[in-house]
Amino acid sequence: MESSLTFEKVWAMFQETDKKFQETDKKFQETEKQMKEVFLEISKESRKTEKKLKELEKLFIGNWGKLMESLVEGELINLFNERGIEVNQTAQRVTRLHNNKQYEIDIIALNGEEIVFVEVKTTLKPEHVQNFLEKLKSAKEVFPLYKSFKIYGAIAYLRYESEAINYAMNNGLFVIRATSKSAKMINPTDFKPREF
Q: CA-CA-CA-CA torsion for 46, 49, 55, 58, nearest 10 degrees?
């Protein structure tokens, strides 16, 4: 028995196919909506995780910096007294707002007439030395309390890159290497520091 295709049969098949396409399209739209919701949730969680990681990084870096400063500060009085600068007190993170700009000195060591500003870096780079030299040039203006003091500079580090140490010494800075238990002055014994 032969089946002949009539307009009605073709039309019915077309309508059935169209109905299936519409159902498939609806399922695609539902799937797309669900995927968007999943991606939004993943994105939201990713932002939360990123924020938490940044907070942890900030906490770690801040605490690492404090640890480095404490390691260096513990030996400063002895190190400078051995070099003829008889300091008798130290302080960490001395800050001052000057001309709407925040200035911070990691450590100061002083005796009433002389003061050493100490910058502490985990990895010392030449640009750190240059920035610190600029800070020292304006020290008496930024910290008028120390205007009558002889101001010296020192830079302390755990590691260094390229010519940072030579650059610091050539510009009259004391250079202090943080070691596993304390700190050590690496300038030659006949080193003459620059007064700022």
A: -80
